[in-house]
Amino acid sequence: MxxxxxxxxxxxxxxxxxxxxxLIEGGRIAALAAHGSSYADxxxxxxxxxxGGKYVIxxxxxxxxxxxxxxxxxxxxxxxxxxxxxxxxxxxTTIVDFAVQSxxxxxxxxxxxxxxxxxSQCAIDYAFHMILSEVTEGTLxxxxxxxxxxxxxxxxxxxxxxxxxxxxxxxxxAMQRGADNGGLIMMHAENGIAIDVLVEQALxxxxxxxxxxxxxxxxxLEAEATHRAIQLxxxxxxxxxxxxxxxxxxxxxxxxxxxxxxxxxxxxxPQYLFLSTDNLAEPDFEGAKYVCSTPLxxxxxxxxxxxxxxxxxxxxxxxxxxxxxxxxxxxxxRGDFSKIPNGMPGVEHRMDLLHQAVVDGHISRRRxxxxxxxxxxxxxxxxxxxxxxxPGADADVVIYDPRAEQTLSxxxxxxxxxxxxxxxxxxxxxVETVLxxxxxxxxxxxxxxxxxxxxxxxxxxxxxxx
Length: 466
Ligand code: URP
Ligand code: ZN
Ligand code: ZN
What we know:
Elements lengths: L2 E10 L4 E9 L2 E7 L3 H4 L5 E4 L4 E4 L1 E6 L4 E2 L2 E2 L4 H10 L2 E9 L6 H12 L6 E7 L5 H12 L4 E5 L10 H14 L2 E5 L3 H13 L6 H6 L2 H18 L3 E3 L5 H12 L4 E5 L1 H5 L2 H4 L20 H11 L4 E2 L32 H10 L5 H15 L17 E11 L18 E11 L2 E4 L24
Parallel strand pairs: 1-4, 1-5, 6-9, 9-10, 10-11, 11-12, 12-13, 13-14, 14-15
Antiparallel strand pairs: 1-2, 2-3, 5-16, 7-8, 16-17, 17-18
This protein binds N-(aminocarbonyl)-beta-alanine and zinc ion (ZN) (2 copies).
N-(aminocarbonyl)-beta-alanine binds next to loops.
């Protein structure tokens, strides 16, 4: 069995920071021991990686991606091959992508289609959540089957009437089922019925530019839906995970519920922490690059999101990576903002942007690893294998250079999309080397991975939430 030792780095997990050497054997972490200790010095290995002056951190776990995802008459521009390769470049070694049940089809058909898209394509390990577009007796029964196959979380939409939307009764039924079978309900919390009224009114007034996407998708309608989802989960006796939280008012709803001891959880994304409605208002249709839902908010909301991440009212930062090229895809909405495909690229930059948040003083180093690696792994049934550096865990390891300087740009990123949402942004810190199950997939900023290295990871049920 091949042995690798990583020597001299600062090992950072959600729990601690220690100058330690890491021994890898057969694709798993075999041991950690204090750097310079006679125990660690005694390890023999086929390969030694010098991590002096660097951080040694768990590979990132991005619990919200959409590769090859159908939306608004087109598909997100990253395939599983290109998207997982870009993720690897950015130090993410596991994604949980959303398989889609399209209307008129079963969950089984949706899941099989997503397995076919990902099979033999991925550079890193992957798992699936399931989007329910129809809650029926049939799909409720299928939820039980899928949880047995390691698809243990289900996304419902209070937005997008006529496409993915579920009404309150359907949501309640799915939550009740999840309470029984251990499946976690993930909620896109926006009042889509009210939003559609505001969209129609805005367009009738000639308000067609991308910035109106942000104006009609009001923070209050995110907060209202978040509140309603929490109450429905209470009635069902189910836990709840709210995805892509962007509004301060929605964070307040989560915080209030958590103060009551309710099992409700929230995720936010880098775009809400670093970008704002100023970007949506960029002229010449450039704002379309930033159209996603929930939408970017005025800058003032960012403080509440950072605070939520520090206090624990928000637990996870995922990317909601859902890229559409500006040319030919975002352009579908020229003259009508409601036709701009919703979603933004980001899978490559989450670890770096959150390291920048450490540098800027928003979060600690351990919290960085907690919200980007450990907690998403734990909450989504990957504890013990992903998100930490501990004996027995998969050797998904990133050597991170905290002093490297980089500038984010479409000219240098690896995502299959023709713009960067962070063009020109300076970042302190950069991924240097990445191991996935002990195999080097990025070696001193050269890609050495391959499509098909990444494996499907069935997940345990999402019961380890707190
Ligand atoms: O705008 C977004 N977020 N697109 C992806 C679909 C979703 O709602 O997560
Ligand atoms: Zn969503
Ligand atoms: Zn999403």
